[in-house]
Write a structure and sequence with these properties.
Layout: H1 15-20, H2 22-26, E1 46-54, E2 58-66, E3 69-75, E4 87-96, E5 104-106, E6 114-126, E7 129-130, E8 133-134, H3 137-143, E9 145-151, E10 156-164, E11 167-172
Antiparallel strand pairs: 1-2, 1-6, 2-3, 3-4, 4-11, 5-6, 6-9, 7-8, 9-10, 10-11
The structure holds manganese (II) ion (MN).
The site of manganese (II) ion has 5 residues, from strand 2.
């Protein structure tokens, strides 16, 4: 029983998240249960995943950990590393964070029936600013524009999601990780 647990988490960003899981953790002994302890966020942001979803029509599901859930978009053509490409991203329902490691076959007759494989994953960092001030991912998405830095195997560097009348648009930002040559 460690009273006043001295969480020396250096990343202020994760403080609120840690506090939100305090009661969850107090109820459990993670040396016994295999439930996740929620000790995430060592990257000062969250995790992202792109899952290749071979269902009725092949698409790629982009998910970003925001406020304890995975915000999700179906990207029919998948993300591009070329800043000239604008990729339609249709927002879908929030998924649990644990879904980021899910791979498998969703049985016929079930929602999204087909195979899911992890196409890329890693940490991401929120880069969104408004009027020169950093704003949270939650606020960014609410406002309809979020910029974030991906540290995956395939996807690296800045990406932006912008809400339009047709849906969201995902683009690679112009930075040293972009593979387009103007
Ligand atoms: Mn899907």
């Amino acid at each position: 029983m460690n009273e006043g647990s001295q969480d020396s988490n250096p990343l202020e960003d994760n403080k609120a998240k840690s506090d939100a899981l305090q009661i969850y953790r107090e109820k459990r002994d993670f040396s016994i249960t295999s439930e996740p302890s929620g000790e995430r966020g060592v990257f000062g942001g969250g995790i992202f995943v792109v899952q290749e979803h071979n269902s009725r029509r092949l698409h790629y599901d982009l998910r970003l950990e925001v406020d304890g859930v995975l915000k999700s978009w179906a990207v029919p053509k998948g993300p591009s590393t070329d800043p000239r490409d604008k990729r339609l991203a249709i927002q879908t329902e929030d998924h649990p964070v644990e879904y980021a490691s899910f791979e498998g076959t969703i049985p016929q007759g079930q929602y999204g029936a087909g195979t899911v494989t992890i196409w890329d994953t890693g940490p991401y960092r929120n880069m969104t600013q408004k009027d020169g001030q950093e704003i949270s991912m939650g606020e960014a998405l609410h406002n309809g524009h979020a910029a974030f830095w991906l540290e995956g195997k395939k996807l690296r560097g800045g990406y932006a999601l912008t809400r339009t009348k047709r849906g969201w648009i995902l683009v690679k930002m112009r930075d040293e990780m972009a593979n387009s040559i103007d």
